[in-house]
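Regression test attached.
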Amino acid sequence: MLKTVRWCVQRGLRTIAARSPTTSELASVKDSGQNADMENELEVAPQRTSVLDPISEDISHIGSYLKPTFNLAAYANRSEVIQEFVKLGVNLYYIEKKISEAVPLILRLKFEDLREHVLFLNSLGVSFEDVGKLITKNPLIFKEKLEDLKVRVNYLKFKRFNDEMIARIVAKNPYWLSYSTHEIDHKLGFFQKNFKLNGNEVRSVAVQKPQLITFEQQHITENTFVLKEEMGFADEELKSIILAKPHIFMQGKFRLQKSFEYVHNVMGISHEQILQNSEILTCRASRMRERHQFLVKLKRDQFNAKEPNYVNLVTMVKDPDGVFATEVAKSSAEAYNMFLKTL
Amino acid sequence: MLLPKAPPIWGALNGLICVYKPAEMSVRKLRNILISKISKEMNELEVRPPAGYVAIEGKPTEKLTVSVRPNFADHPLVVGPRYQERDLAVSWSNHLGYYTSGVLLFGIKSGTREAKFIRENLPTRAYRVKGVLGLMTDNCFRTGKIMMKSTWKHVRRHNVDGFLSAMQASHQRKMFELCGVDMESQAAYDLAKQGLIRPANAKIPIIYGIKCVEFEGPHFTLEIQCVNEYEDYMTHIINEIGLKLRSVAHCTDIQCIRHSRFTLKDALLIKHWTLAGILDNMKTCSDVIKESGDLVHQKSATLV
């Protein structure tokens, strides 16, 4: 019996609090000491004048928060960071589409952190235009502390990369500085060990194609297998390929196979000749087929350097169609276009 | 450097273009290349500058100032390029298979309607199909696994010609039979007078003309005029011809050399896909459509 009465009292209090409180009601609740907020409000309430009275203080800064937006543009006119990024040439649209996890990071950034990072990258010899491109590709670089970045650059200096090399590496490979020194050391070691390179050669590969060093190692292992086991290049030959054209190890393996198959099996080019002109392995098989068939049609497919009318493999694939038709095939651009429409 | 303004050029990009499709590339890939090339070049022209941002600042109790600042929310680096790939409507009028090369029609923006009309009018197409005697593959094309070998020396040019003319005649007779008219009647003559008899269903392939244009060793080339064909149908024709000639054959190349009135001469190679080239091609295509009269809009309800 006693229990039910107490429950009723409590419930009654709750219903009173839920309603809009009048002074008399609040006064009765006050004794119970239950609702501290109500008590404060009770003291403030008599001082407030009518809501219809004109107000003198400035409340223009009070506004609603931004509702969830579907792009960064809604923040652009309020955020200093976004405006600075635009001035640097950072493509925020690209970041939003491709690296969406970086967007909250950008919105939380303060101008001071941004400034220090950008000035540090610029002090390495990277132009502001390239810094913009770097941030576009890797906005997560702002996650890294400035001290860490300095340590990573110092590591490169310790490994005897000079300032020009470092500037090129950082500008060409936006992700390089996001890797710790331990990881970079491991990656450089991977190339040194797998291709038996000496210090100077590792540096030359890293500068020639900085993206290769941080590329997926599984892919490089696969391409090495394709070149060695399927195409039949020896270990020393792999070394000369990576020094001449490191990009070959970043290509898709099926594309590489197709190019090699056409060059070696259809055109009949030997391994030695391919090594001398390793650039032809970067050429797409379809482009090679078009050009080779045109030369065959004109009876100009002579790839032996010791005989007359020799066609250099690199010049055959390198130049645009017009130059190829006139200089290499000794024909005209119109004739080549006509030929392309018969394939 | 003074660049041409983008909006008038965007407005002019309405119509049909005729392109050359290389083999071993899908039509969808080709469409994506076209769209990305056009939008890339459009964005390099003089596009709309960012609109101004009207800022009203100051204390509301005192004097407010109104100023116009550059609007960062409308900057191409923030909202994206002015001409985006998804804004451009492109559709194809005839579908060519992965291994087929040749004439392909693309409708751009309002040209997609024309492309649809041309497709629904079932225009004839001409193909040049190459085959090799002596080998049969599992998919009847050069990419398949070799299933059978056979001699081919006994096959001569006149054997091929004879069989092909019989095949053409049987296709033609079949069409009259399907129309329900006797070949030796006035009704059949009246029907033939109107032009090609086309199937009501767009799924039934019909051959109007087939002949051998080249015969050398095991290699031969056919020229086929047809409607409603598809890649597998072409390869199977070659396979069938091989068997009927008491040998086997497989197909090596399929090239569409004519689509309604568009020929290889009008077709634009991928390397010429610039805004200037595309607009030029659009002009020649609209001329071809005007000349032909009923290519897009048919005058009578019966498809003739």
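Expected vs. actual: identical. Chain B touches chain A through 26 residues (CB under 8 Å).
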